[in-house]
């Protein structure tokens, strides 16, 4: 590294990687601390859903802007980062969410009849209830995104755990890591489940709720469809009211999870040790009813921590203390490039965007 970095980023999940890349875009020297393997925390595993549909119009706008940054970076990094195969949503939430999308203007989303639904989602069983298609949504190529961003950051990305960080009182931030102490102009903490602990060290109490989550991946029966949309099912027609699913690159595998998570205590222990197994059994039962296009024996399993904010399962916010920024929320993968640019801007002395301040409760249904 030629220059002493100005900004420390803690965590190389998708949010930290995007923040560091956005800082590098601005010509800012950055160091990213990652205690494990980049992209193996909440950002782990192949595939996520990029959807515009949210219950908060401000978040719809944020997501639209995020899609534009994904597309810009895909061109620059030379890889598809989000597919163009759309997202279908089923159930009684469809009319309300569609109204918000249509009010936003310019987002190609519409109701679909059963024939079009099954053309877009050929793995799905017969379904005749409310359905919509978000044509500008698709599957995020998570591995490609993590790899390309990490490659672009090169030796700015270091394997090192941040033990604590604090303001020095001289307008700078000291970062204490496993192997050293360094001073920076500012720091951005994107440490997933580790963020709340680091924030407590500087007197901030973040209302982050940690939980455990399980997602199963199934093989598509026969030849993979040429196009297959992501799925959000809140219909209850197949026995569950909160299911999401997304194809892997090449469409031969499909990952399925229940939105429901398993609560954990503050120390990370489970109140019900069997709860994760029960959730994965329910996901298997769901696919045997809803997705006959999949072989019902899972080929992969992802057990993972997730963090969320109390006002929405899509909630997101940034806390600040003396030039240290702490980002938290859930379902952040799709938002990460736009959030990363906002964090980079805040770190480089632009004001933190009003919508990202905790008081704005971005994502809260309204
Ligand atoms: C199964 C599953 C499905 C999901 N589906 C979707 C979806 O469809 N769409 C969507 O948009 N989002 C989805 N999400 C949520 C999304 O993946 C996460 O919100 C996002 O990946 C969070 O990224 P992050 O960078 O904030 O956190 P993380 O990916 O957890 O990254 C934090 C990093 O910080 C590192 N770290 C922690 N403490 C320290 C420390 N002290 N020092 C150094 N490094 C540290 C960790 O090792 C980790 O790599 C899903 C999540 C899961 C688990």
UniProtKB/TrEMBL annotation:
Top-rank taxon: Bacteria
InterPro entries in alphabetical order: FAD-dep_OxRdtase, FAD/NAD-bd_sf, MTOX
Cofactor(s) listed in the protein's UniProt record: FAD
Ranges where the FAD dependent oxidoreductase domain occurs: 7-344
Molecular function GO terms recorded: flavin adenine dinucleotide binding; sarcosine oxidase activity
Entry keyword set: FAD, Flavoprotein, Oxidoreductase
Transmembrane segments: none
Pfam families, per the entry: DAO (PF01266)
PANTHER family in alphabetical order: PEROXISOMAL SARCOSINE OXIDASE
Name listed for the protein in its UniProt record: FAD-binding oxidoreductase
């Amino acid at each position: 590294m030629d220059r002493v970095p100005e900004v420390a980023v803690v965590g190389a999940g998708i949010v930290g990687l995007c923040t560091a890349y956005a800082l590098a875009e601005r010509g800012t020297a950055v160091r990213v601390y990652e205690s494990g393997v980049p992209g193996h925390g909440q950002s782990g595993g192949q595939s996520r859903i990029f959807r515009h549909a949210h219950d908060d119009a401000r978040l719809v706008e944020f997501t639209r802007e995020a899609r534009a940054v994904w597309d810009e970076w895909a061109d620059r990094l030379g890889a598809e980062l989000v597919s163009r195969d759309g997202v279908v949503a089923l159930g009684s939430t469809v009319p309300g969410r569609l109204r918000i999308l249509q009010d936003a203007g310019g987002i190609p989303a519409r109701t679909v009849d059963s024939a079009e639904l099954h053309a877009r989602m050929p793995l799905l069983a017969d379904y005749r209830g409310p359905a919509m298609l978000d044509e500008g949504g698709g599957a995020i190529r998570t591995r490609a995104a993590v790899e390309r961003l990490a490659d672009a950051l090169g030796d700015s990305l270091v394997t090192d755990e941040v033990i604590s960080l604090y303001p020095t009182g001289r307008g700078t931030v000291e970062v204490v890591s496993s192997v050293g102490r360094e001073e920076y102009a500012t720091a951005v903490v994107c440490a997933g489940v580790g963020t709340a602990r680091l924030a407590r060290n500087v007197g901030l109490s973040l209302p982050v709720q940690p939980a455990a989550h399980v997602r199963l991946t199934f093989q598509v029966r026969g030849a993979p469809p040429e196009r297959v949309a992501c799925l959000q099912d809140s219909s209850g027609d197949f026995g569950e009211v909160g299911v999401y699913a997304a194809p892997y690159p090449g469409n031969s595998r499909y990952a399925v999870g229940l939105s429901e998570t398993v609560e954990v205590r503050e120390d990370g222990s489970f109140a019900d040790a069997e709860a994760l197994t029960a959730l994965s059994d329910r996901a298997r039962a769901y696919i045997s009813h809803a997705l006959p296009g999949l072989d019902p024996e899972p080929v992969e399993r992802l057990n993972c921590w997730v963090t969320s904010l109390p006002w929405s399962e899509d909630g997101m916010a940034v806390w600040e203390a003396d030039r240290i920024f702490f980002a938290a929320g859930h379902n952040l993968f799709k938002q990460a490039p736009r959030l990363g640019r906002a964090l980079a801007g805040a770190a480089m002395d632009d004001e933190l965007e009003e919508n990202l301040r905790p008081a704005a409760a971005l994502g809260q249904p309204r």
